[in-house]
C-alpha cells in the first residue's frame, strides 16, 4: 500500500489578533470588525475539528 501524504485531518492552528481582542464586548471602544472576524473564524475552524488558539493582547485586568 502506498502511504498517503496529504494534509492531516485536524490541525493545530494559531491565530494572532494584535489590534483587537475577540473577547471584547461589542459596541465597546475595542470592538470592531477584526475581533468579530477572528472570533467567528476561530469558531468555524474549531467546528471542523481543528484545535485553535488565539493570541491577543489583554483587554481587561481579569483576563490572562
UniProtKB/TrEMBL annotation:
Which SUPFAM superfamilies does the record match to this protein?
UDP-Glycosyltransferase/glycogen phosphorylase
Q: Which Pfam families match?
A: Glyco_transf_4
Q: Which GO terms describe its molecular function?
A: glycosyltransferase activity
The lineage's top-level taxon is: Bacteria
Limits of the Glycosyltransferase subfamily 4-like N-terminal domain: 32-61
Alphabetically list the UniProt keywords: Glycosyltransferase, Transferase
What is the name attached to this protein's record? Glycosyltransferase subfamily 4-like N-terminal domain-containing protein
Q: Which organism is it from?
A: Streptomyces violaceusniger
Amino acid at each position: 500500500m502506498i502511504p498517503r501524504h496529504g494534509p492531516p485531518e485536524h490541525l493545530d492552528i494559531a491565530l494572532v489578533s494584535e489590534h483587537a481582542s475577540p473577547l471584547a464586548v461589542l459596541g465597546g471602544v475595542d470592538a470592531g470588525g477584526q475581533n468579530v472576524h477572528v472570533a467567528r473564524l476561530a469558531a468555524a475552524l474549531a467546528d471542523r475539528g481543528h484545535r485553535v488558539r488565539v493570541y491577543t493582547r489583554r483587554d481587561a485586568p481579569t483576563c490572562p
